[in-house]
Backbone:
């Protein structure tokens, strides 16, 4: 590079990076087009005349977030750096970051759909007390039995609405019934039908992503047994969202359990504008990856370890 060329690039770069002038202002000062200024700035970086360093401990997780957003065409990704954190601290940080994101996104939206599970319990526990009286929280699925009530969709909806000073609706039905006939009868109940219909029309859905084969909460609380697991394996199940089991193409599978679930299905969840999936744990990598590839969720809250695995070719 000739000396005059290098000097011109340095001058333009100094005005842009050190003086804070816009490209349009620089173009006017030196009498060239804005597009030429833009090209010169690129040339300055390629010639190593300009090197940009981001001086923040968040740069690692921020790059993982951008990688996920670009690879899976997400609306947002929130990645928690787990360095020096134990398991309980990771759980708490995930819940806190999910709560902060929901607070930011729920300011203008008035309808929130709530699934169930431990990750959503942590979100609700970490949500600050606010004044959002226009908010209505809808359960996206029925209750999960008499035990573990704190992670049921109705309880989570009630607790979140209370923290927001908003309102909650309730789905007075079990999540899973013994046969499709009972499901049909319950779905025809006016109140149950109304809540499910309104759940399909929310602005934001809060869901978890799980694998039924490893560390499954549904297995832990006794909601599905070994026979159900065997049926899921035969049906080629790869994961579940809102207790709706999906295959490798992200489609709701033709398995017996899916025929007995009372709640919003996967096709309806896909149509919700903002679907926030709180999903982490090495055992869930395949389930999370398929849910992202098949657009079952468009926002993810996860850990750096999961993000790194997802970004591998």
Residues:
């Amino acid at each position: 590079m000739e000396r005059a060329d290098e000097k011109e690039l340095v001058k333009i770069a100094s005005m842009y990076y050190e003086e804070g002038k816009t490209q349009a202002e620089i173009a006017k000062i030196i009498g060239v087009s804005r597009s030429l200024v833009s090209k010169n700035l690129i040339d300055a970086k390629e010639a190593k005349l300009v090197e940009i360093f981001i001086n923040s401990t968040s740069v690692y997780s921020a790059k993982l977030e951008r990688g996920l957003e670009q690879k899976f065409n997400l609306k947002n990704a929130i990645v928690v750096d787990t360095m020096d954190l134990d398991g309980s601290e990771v759980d708490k940080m995930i819940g806190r970051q999910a709560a902060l994101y929901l607070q930011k996104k729920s300011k203008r939206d008035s309808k929130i759909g709530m699934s169930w599970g431990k990750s959503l319990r942590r979100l609700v526990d970490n949500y600050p007390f606010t004044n959002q009286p226009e908010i209505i929280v809808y359960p996206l699925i029925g209750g999960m039995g008499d035990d573990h009530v704190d992670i049921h969709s109705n309880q989570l909806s009630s607790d979140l609405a209370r923290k927001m000073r908003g309102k909650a609706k309730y789905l007075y039905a079990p999540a899973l019934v013994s046969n499709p006939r009972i499901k049909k009868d319950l779905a025809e109940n006016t109140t149950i039908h109304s809540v499910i219909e309104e759940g399909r029309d929310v602005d934001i859905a809060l869901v978890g992503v799980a694998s039924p084969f490893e560390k499954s909460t549904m297995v832990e609380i006794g909601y599905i047994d070994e026979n159900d697991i065997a049926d899921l394996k035969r049906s080629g199940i790869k994961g579940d969202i809102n207790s709706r089991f999906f295959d490798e193409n992200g489609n709701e599978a033709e398995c017996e359990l899916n025929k007995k679930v009372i709640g919003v299905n996967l096709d309806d969840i896909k149509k919700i504008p903002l679907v926030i999936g709180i999903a982490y744990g090495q055992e869930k990598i395949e389930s999370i990856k398929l849910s992202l590839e098949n657009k079952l969720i468009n926002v993810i809250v996860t850990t750096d370890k999961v993000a790194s695995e997802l970004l591998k070719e």
The mean pLDDT is 89.
